[in-house]
């Protein structure tokens, strides 16, 4: 039997049937003990026998009749007080046949034709109290209640099986759809039990796999698109070596194109790794001011070459947790991008602000800025605001893309605004709690 739903339902029903099978003999045993000698009902009948004998001895048949009338107002049974031979003291009828059902008059009940007959002798042995009554607990009378209980428990078992099997079936269907290429399918379960944890684990795995496959496809597309120009220039440089009069110049041109191609491939690998493997980095406590001062010192030579000033100001003591190398590359890309686009003789400002929940870093240049409709696109891989720029003038367009993904991995935000003049790039990182 392969269906978990059917197995759960059958096991629950089997447990119920076994419980009912055990309940029947227990109920029968309890019923018999209730009317047996020494049981509660037997004790009550013995008390009634003593009371009836005392009433008859003191008041005769008339007093006994009144006592029996009062007794039958509260109990639904037939009671007869006889002498030792079985003659009814009220009507004079012979009831000795009933005495033979319990000859010892010990109060032990006998069942005859679906009714209980109990004979109890008085203490002095002169009288017999005969009680004919329905069984106190009849198994047949309990069958309707057992049936209702069976239906109620069967409904609960069905709901239980449905509650367990249905999400597992949905999980199986979702896994099958994901395996067929629907990478955006998710379970989005809100359950708090193990099935919910399994569903959320699948969603996390699917998100991870989807990101990996998407990044791989994007990398292949980016590589195929961006390698065309360098390869074409390499082919041209190779031809020039055979025909050029000065081969040293041709070889130098060939080496330069090889270096550019190597740099492009390394950058592509870096941006892909930052996107698909955020857990590979090691988080550590960092002081934001120290990290930015190191970056600015490394970029100062490039800024001096353009006669630009650069410095860091603001709240330099802010602390947060992050991957030092990944964040260093991200911030360095933003700072170098600002140095590259600011006019010669101007300044690049790096300012740190504390918003209590996050640290905000603003890198501002004095350049022409970016059209407003392109502010969001500058963080896309290989995007260049100026189509006339190529890798020899403005890079391959991956610096800000790497920075954007690195900041996103740290649960931060990266955006750009026009500062009139210049461009302001904001980096927001959550502070350490």
The averaged pLDDT comes out at 79
Major sheet attributes:
5 strands, mixed
Strand line-up in the sheet with most strands: 6-8-9-11-10
Which CATH class of the domain at 282-430 applies here? Alpha Beta
Rg, rounded, reads 48 Å
Reading the helices and strands in chain order gives HHEHEEEHHHHEHEEHEEHHEE
| Count of separate DSSP helical elements | 11
This entry's quaternary arrangement is single chain
Which spans of ≥5 residues are poorly predicted at pLDDT below 50?
Answer: 387-394
Label the CATH architecture of the domain at 282-430: 2-Layer Sandwich
Overall helicity? 55-70%
Structural class: alpha+beta
Short synopsis of the structure:
Helices cover 55% and strands 16% of the residues.
How would you describe this structure to a colleague?
The protein is α+β, with helices and mostly antiparallel strands and 433 residues long. The strands form three sheets. It has a five-stranded mixed sheet. Strands 1-4-3-2 form a four-stranded antiparallel sheet, covered by helices on one side. Helices cover 55% and strands 16% of the residues. Helix 7 (247-276) packs parallel to helix 11 (399-409). The protein contains eleven helices and eleven strands.
Layout of strands and helices, then pairs:
Elements: H1 4-35, H2 40-72, E1 78-83, H3 96-99, E2 110-112, E3 115-121, E4 127-133, H4 139-179, H5 194-226, H6 228-243, H7 247-276, E5 283-287, H8 288-305, E6 309-314, E7 319-323, H9 324-341, E8 347-354, E9 358-364, H10 391-394, H11 399-409, E10 413-418, E11 423-430
Parallel strand pairs: 6-8
Antiparallel strand pairs: 1-4, 2-3, 3-4, 5-7, 8-9, 9-11, 10-11
């Amino acid at each position: 039997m392969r269906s978990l739903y059917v197995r759960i339902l059958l096991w629950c029903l089997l447990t119920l049937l076994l419980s009912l099978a055990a309940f029947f003999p227990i109920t029968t045993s309890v019923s018999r003990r209730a009317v047996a000698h020494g049981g509660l009902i037997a004790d009550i009948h013995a008390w009634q026998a003593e009371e009836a004998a005392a009433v008859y001895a003191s008041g005769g048949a008339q007093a006994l009749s009144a006592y029996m009338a009062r007794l039958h107002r509260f109990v639904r049974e037939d009671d007869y007080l006889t002498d030792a031979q079985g003659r009814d003291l009220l009507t004079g009828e012979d009831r000795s046949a009933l005495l033979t059902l319990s000859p010892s008059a010990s109060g032990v009940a006998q069942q005859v034709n679906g009714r209980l007959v109990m004979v109890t002798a008085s203490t002095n042995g002169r009288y017999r109290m005969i009680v004919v009554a329905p069984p106190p607990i009849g198994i047949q009378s309990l069958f309707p209640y057992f049936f209702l209980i069976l239906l109620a428990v069967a409904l609960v078992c069905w709901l239980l099986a449905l509650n367990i099997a249905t999400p597992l079936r949905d999980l199986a269907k979702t896994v099958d759809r994901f395996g067929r290429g629907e990478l955006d399918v998710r379970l989005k379960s809100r359950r708090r039990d193990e099935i919910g944890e399994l569903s959320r684990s699948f969603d996390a795995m699917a998100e991870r796999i989807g990101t990996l496959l998407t990044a791989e496809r994007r990398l292949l597309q980016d590589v195929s698109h961006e390698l065309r120009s360098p390869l074409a220039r390499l082919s041209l440089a190779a031809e020039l070596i055979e025909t050029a009069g000065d081969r040293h110049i041709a070889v130098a041109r060939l080496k330069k194109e090889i270096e550019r191609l190597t740099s492009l491939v390394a950058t592509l690998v870096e941006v892909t790794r930052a996107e698909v493997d955020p857990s590979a980095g090691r988080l550590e406590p960092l002081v934001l001011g120290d990290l930015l001062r190191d970056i600015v010192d490394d970029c100062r030579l490039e800024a001096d070459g353009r006669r630009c000033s650069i410095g860091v100001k603001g709240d330099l003591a802010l602390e947060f947790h992050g991957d030092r190398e990944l964040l260093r590359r991200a911030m360095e890309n933003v700072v170098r991008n600002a140095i590259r686009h600011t006019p010669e003789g101007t300044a690049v400002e790096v300012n740190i602000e504390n918003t209590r929940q996050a640290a905000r870093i603003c890198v501002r240049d004095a350049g022409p800025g970016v059209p407003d409709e392109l502010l969001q696109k500058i963080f896309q891989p290989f995007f260049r605001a100026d189509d006339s720029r190529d890798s020899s003038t403005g890079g391959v367009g991956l610096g800000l893309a790497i920075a954007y993904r690195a900041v996103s991995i740290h649960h931060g935000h990266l955006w750009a605004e026009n500062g009139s003049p210049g461009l302001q790039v904001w980096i927001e990182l959550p502070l350490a709690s």
